[in-house]
Amino acid sequence: MKVEGLIFDLDGVIVDTAKYHYLAWKELAKELGFDFSEKDNERLKGVSRMQSLDILLEVGKIELPDEKKQELAEKKNRQYVAMIKKMTPDELLPGALNFLKSAKAKGYKTALGSASKNAMIILNRLEIAGLFDVIIDGTKVSKAKPDPEVFLAGAKALNIKAENCVVFEDAAAGVEAAHNGNMFCIGIGTPENLPDADFLISGFGKFTINDFEELIKQ
Ligand code: B16
Ligand code: MG
Q1: Could you tell me the residue range of the domain that residue 178 belongs to?
Q2: Which of 17, 27, 137, 183 fits 11 for a cystine, CB–CB 3.0-4.6 Å?
């Protein structure tokens, strides 16, 4: 396989922001009078903010007009942003920084492909924005994963053909998005949650750029 570009999802691949999303959504559910479990939260990974709210309201069996939903999503986001503004570089997932740096040193082009509208705040807090040649986030695309828009936009901005890009994803919808864009996808997770990934790793702690090059040689 000829690989020139690497496209990284953010939450669950480079950093665990899911815990902050969870705290903010749980607080909102509490205010609405129901409990939101960690298991329910799994359904929100990789999903856009408004879709996340729809899932939350489905769990609480609550129906609301669009205007009210907008208000609640903004409220949740304010709480979430207050938390991520305090993040520090030591919150990078194990091995992620090393993998990104060595990928760049080897000459690969790198892109971020995240659904989050808050990706820039996170990248700046983690001090890694400069490691991406291109940053495509929720402010630049309108179609949520499994639509391939975010990854195709990444490949296009890198000026690399989709089939020469590899995507790193932790969410099933993201793996599907990569495949819909005709890209090889390395899943960060387990066979149970990511059965369709082309190759699975537990994270970058035990997967170096050399392991990656061995894999794509085949
Ligand atoms: P925001 P990713 C996703 O990030 C999260 O996994 C998902 O839980 C969240 O709802 C989504 O971003 C939107 O985030 O509310 O900050 O715009 O995995 O695509 O990097
Ligand atoms: Mg993710």
Answers
A1: 5-16+89-217
A2: 17
Per the DSSP assignment, residues forming a β-bridge with 107 are none
Pocket perturbation via mutation, ligand 1, pick of 17, 118, 136, 149 by most ligand atoms within 8 A of CB:
17
Evaluate: CB of 177 within 6 angstroms of ligand 1: no
Indicate if 98 and 110 belong to the same structural domain: yes
- Whole-prediction pTM: 0.95
9 is catalytic: yes
Of the chain, the end-to-end C-alpha distance in Å amounts to 7
Longest alpha-carbon distance in the chain:
54
Q: Are residues 64 and 106 in the same domain?
A: no
Q: How many CA atoms within 13 Å lie on the side-chain side of 109?
A: 19
Residues 48 and 105 in one domain: no
128 and 40 fall within a common domain: no
- Separation of CA 214 and ligand 1 centre (Å): 31
pLDDT in tens, the chain (218 residues): 899 999 999 999 999 999 999 999 999 999 999 999 999 998 998 899 999 999 999 999 999 999 999 999 999 999 999 999 999 999 999 999 999 999 999 999 999 999 999 999 999 999 999 999 999 999 999 999 999 999 999 999 999 999 999 999 999 999 999 999 999 999 999 999 999 999 999 999 999 999 999 999 97
